[in-house]
Amino acid sequence: MPYFINKKKERIHYKSIKGKWPGIIFIHGLNSDMSGQKALSLEKFAKRNKLRFIRFECRGHGKSDGKFEDFTISDWKKDLIDIIDNIAKGPQILVGSSMGGWLMFLAAKSRSRRIVGLVGLAAAPDYIDEFYKKLPFKKKKEMNKRGIIKYSSYGFSYLIKKKYIIDGRKNKILNKEFKWNKPLILIQGLKDNVVTPDLPEKIVKKIKGNQIQIKLLKNSDHRLSEPFDLNIINESIKSIIKN
């Protein structure tokens, strides 16, 4: 599998296929990787439609270099920008899942000329405040004292450093309005117990543009990986390409 080596000599694991423009870049969620159902389904979609496609793993995830707890939202944004600048060619559609949806918005602001459309899959921009608010008092105390805690959620356990919280707050996108006059489609399951279904509405209130859609899927959860969900994702990308 190929790697991109960044300026710090760290490897970012990715897979790409050649094809027509616009290309598609899939951005995975927190503590996930590039081998999930959505990424593989998108790759098949790209192959069928002869489109360029990239899936990759942020540092500290999957087979990319580093330990999860050593990185922050800024680092993962840099990984996505590195992929856009060095691996992708031409115009791109970004498809961001959960945390990947936050990175998608950050990259769209930084590389707006290269990005022709955005598809958020249970996109979770600015989730840090909510995450910290829900931390038990004991965990907050431990983080302030030791600078690191062990955190368990939905069957996963991982280490979280204080710098992850501080950096996340510096990368907010919903604290001020921004313009996006290109397609943006937010796909959200109403049975999602990780990202609340009212978040897409909060997002679109902050984004000024006339090509914005929210697709609420009644029986879908956070994974958005059932055949119906995957079909909706594919159709959304098709609509951006035709645009």
Architecture overview:
This protein has eight helices and twelve strands. With about 240 residues, it is of the alpha/beta class. The chain has a single domain, classed as Rossmann fold, CATH 3.40.50.1820. Strand 1 and strand 2 form a beta hairpin. Helix 2 (about 75-85) crosses helix 3 (about 100-110). The radius of gyration is 17 Å and the shape is globular. The model has no long low-confidence stretch (mean pLDDT about 95).
Strand content: 25-35%
Number of strands: 12
How are helices and strands ordered from N to C?
EEEHEHEHEHHEEHEEHEEH
* Strand-pairing-aware structural class: alpha/beta
Main beta sheet:
8 strands, mixed
Can you count the helices? Answer: 8
Looking at the overall shape, the CATH architecture is: 3-Layer(aba) Sandwich
- Rg, Å, rounded: 17 Å
Looking at CATH, which topology would you report?
Rossmann fold
Strand order of the largest sheet: 1-2-4-3-5-6-10-12
Q: Mind telling me the CATH class? A: Alpha Beta
- Amount of helix: 25-40%
**What is the oligomeric state here?**
single chain
> What coarse outline follows from CA principal-axis ratios?
globular
Count of domains: 1
CATH homolog superfamily: Alpha/Beta hydrolase fold, catalytic domain
Overall average residue pLDDT: 96
Cα separation of the termini: 33 Å
Unreliable sequence segments: none
